[in-house]
Specification:
Length: about 325
Amino acid sequence: MLEEVERWLTRRSWSAADRTLDRLLVAKAARGTTVSVVLPALDEEATVGAIVSVIRRELMERAPLVDELVVIDSGSTDRTAEVAAAAGARVVHRDAILPRLPALPGKGEVLWRSLLVTSGDVVCFVDADLRRFSADFVSGTVGPLLTDADVQFVKAMYDRPLREDDPDGEGDPDGEDGGMNGAVGGQGGRVTELVARPLLNLHWPRLAGFVQPLGGEYAARRSLLERLPFPVGYGVELGLLVDALHTVGLDALGQVDVGVRLHRHQDDRALGRMAAAIYRTAQLRLSRAHLVRPELTQFDRGENGFVPRTYSVDTEERPPIREIAEYTSGRAA
């Protein structure tokens, strides 16, 4: 690890417990900072309500840390929108935002559009599939942005067990997995460890100190987010992290330990497509002169053997939001 990164780890890595809620409220009031929380959601009826309820109860009603809580529904076929609204969020459908520009599928598209329907000086993104959600995911990541004017972008870090019944990540030593089904503390998900972390260490070693580079819980100043392009799909987390480094420098980035993150895991085939999108996002930032094929072929077993299935890889990126006329005119108003 670079010496610069070792120094960064001591300066810009914190625990959520390092900043009390009272301290955050004082800092927020002193600077007049406003905070928006955005949950991108697609068919998350089972979890979105509990997340919204915790944020609303703990960080809006009991303590006025969050000014705006918005769920962006990207086309759910279940009751995600109704559940989120009943729990106290403002729900906006993705397609209702910037309707002149047809929406593209993908999480990054939703995050990019959310900047048009929120107003906070600090924007905090939270995935809508988290279970046993803690308000620390919000107060922890927002905290450094309220207390330290030099910090621009903060990611959550956490343990990430593979089984919901094993929140300590210890696995079952007597089970078929030999104790390996739980994640070791500090590890990311499979795509993080097999794709994102090697890419960052090899090509952007100044980002090697991030424990969860692909985590969906992070906060940033609007003034930074509006300057960054947004990959529309799974590459959004890596793209924003790399571009934030190049835009504001390593010392403006930070991470906060929020404990344990439990969520729904995807199968290996979905992870393969996610990995391809992340690799493509990285490759676009390494060289725009020689691009790899934006497709991924996987295989199903059919009646007569294996059948190839080819999927397109997310390649679209939205420009910095400040280049969109509706955004700049709305902010001016």
